[in-house]
């Protein structure tokens, strides 16, 4: 059975035809329009380009936003036009196919659990480190989403009272210390704090990518910024382990491409600071198998499972 997974992002709508092994057969992408009806139309036309060429059974949408508990509605998505829109039912009617909806980090976690770095794990966590932190938890093969559909907000756990201001309105959230944005902020603090030589001084406003590249090249100040990120990631891993005790934690997101610069140090910090350190098995902390296509592959898998579980109600609901 083939299904389509769609990653509905702030800049582009990307769709992939995916088979039962998680293999992507073909992809198609269009820019994300700013209006709500136009967004539905863009998704429908992107899906049709692929469904005209492959016999697909269902569609899964991965959305960066708050999805309702029943996963039929998008409540709010900061970078998309949808506000309390019954996206799954509207697109199902438009396409004549079953449509399921999922938060993008959850979809990525499903891709890793079904086909990737967390295959077979009974309790698996995904920590996506990018501009901020996205997190997901899979327990007994199912996404854990809490009673209202918004768990787990790992990135917004406060780790430093009165710390760095976060875009969520709070101060001192974990993602202010462990993300691409955090890497830039830490480097800026180190640059201001002294006159240690660094290639980053030649840049007006170094980004997280600049810091990662400088660390890769051996720049000592950039390496210290990376070590700080590693420590905070270790703190985050210890928090995840204390609350959920996962078998495996999958590190994903853009900053995971620099994992060789911080992951060992993060593991060590986690192993030292987790409750009962030295007397309990630790989670495997591994880098994600899938990069960019993860959310599409996971959404397609959820669409396939939806059809297999509910053959008499192919239009969902
Ligand atoms: Zn926050």
TrEMBL record:
UniProt protein name: Glucokinase
Entries under Gene3D superfamilies matching the protein: 3.30.420.40
UniProt entry tagged with the keyword Transport: no
Family: Belongs to the ROK (NagC/XylR) family.
E.C. numbers: 2.7.1.2
Coiled coil feature spans: none
Domain of life: Bacteria
Organism whose genome encodes this protein: Saccharopolyspora hordei
GO molecular function, one term: glucokinase activity
Keywords from the UniProt entry: Kinase, Transferase
